[in-house]
User: Fold this.
Amino acid sequence: MTKRKMKWFGMTMTGLLALSLSACGGGGTAATNNASGDAGGAKTEPAAASDPAAKDITITFQNIYPDASDPKNQMMKKIVEQYQSENPNVTIELDSLNTDQQKLKLKTQAASKEVPDITVVNPAAQMQPFVDADLFAPLNDMVEENGLKDTFQSGILDYYTFDNNLYALPDGNNIGVVYYNKKLMAEGGVEVPKTFEEMIEAIKTLKSKGIQPMVIGEKDSWTGSFLFMNILLRTNGGPGFLQDVLDGKKTFEDPAYVEAISAFQQLVDAGAFQDGATSFDYNAGENLFKTGTAAMYYMGSWATGGIETAEVSKDGNVGVFQFPTVGGKGNPDEFMLAPGSAFAISKDSENLDETKKFLNYFMLNFPKEAFEAKGAVGIAQNVEGDFKAAGYSDMAMNVLDLFKKVKGGDLAFDNTINPATTQVHLSGTQSLFVEKKDPAAVAKELQAAFEENK
Assistant:
């Protein structure tokens, strides 16, 4: 992907949100629903039962829904069971992994040209190497079947399109938010922080009273990066830092980046995160918040479904707020933007036609089943239904309200910069959890990696 294309991607997300959010109404926003009518997903005709004499087919479905308590895990299994019931000669074999495990496994599979029938990829720069290696089947024709393309929010498929070929279908379109435990915040005597400096003081106060301030699953190193990038969005005074680096207008040694490293280190030094944060994977870190052991949790809005169905959300105990200004800089209405992970099909699938048929069926049913499982906040497709009437929590409704506030933002580091440089960034950010480092030295190391891997 060229630098020009990356710049266009960044502009597209802002435009996408502006366009999709302008149609807000009812119980949610157009980023997550078309608030009209009764609950229901895209209209789809049931698949015809297979010929009893048809050959047996097994489709390997690699996914990142390993947590049985997550609504997306539940709706995935429901759709798979429905498809197998309607197509008795087809077996869908689930390979459910956490995000980092899946990324590592896919790299190994790609190197040996043994990509599973369906796998998970991330948008833009992360997809580029797999597309260049000609591993995925174009889905242009498939998405026209049964109107699947029209179920996606305007512009979202651009993040998965290269040279006019669509190679993956996304499950989400999200923003970064801070979830908080109202009871623990009250017990600690702290209020929702409106500035980063207030956040640091709140963390120190909570820590002094024996309350875990924040949690994170930093074994999966993207989690720390996602938080760090929201700090950078503020210290830079707005979006576009990474694009400026790509365009040669800035370097990673720019004061905004160094300041972001310093601010991130302040979180660590204040005792924000649980002991051994780098040994907790994404699910384990999130579960600490879901079980009520921490006051705050920064994550993409995709976490809403799992949190609102957890015990911690009982009696409206969980709230949500925008990441605050840092050093007086930035606009809280600018968010980390997260076009979601997406499903791609192996070009060399032995059952390519049946695999496309299944993925088409899966995505047509995805909005309806996600809605019913309380997991439709932040999905990439339009959802028909009244979220409030369907029993979505006040917290979920607050997240939907935040979508209405979006005035642009940035994509994650690994969706913007080449994988080799990204790995140096991820490792450098992860190292801040375990040792104090000179921010300028960390920035210099990253800039050297960027220069080497242009």
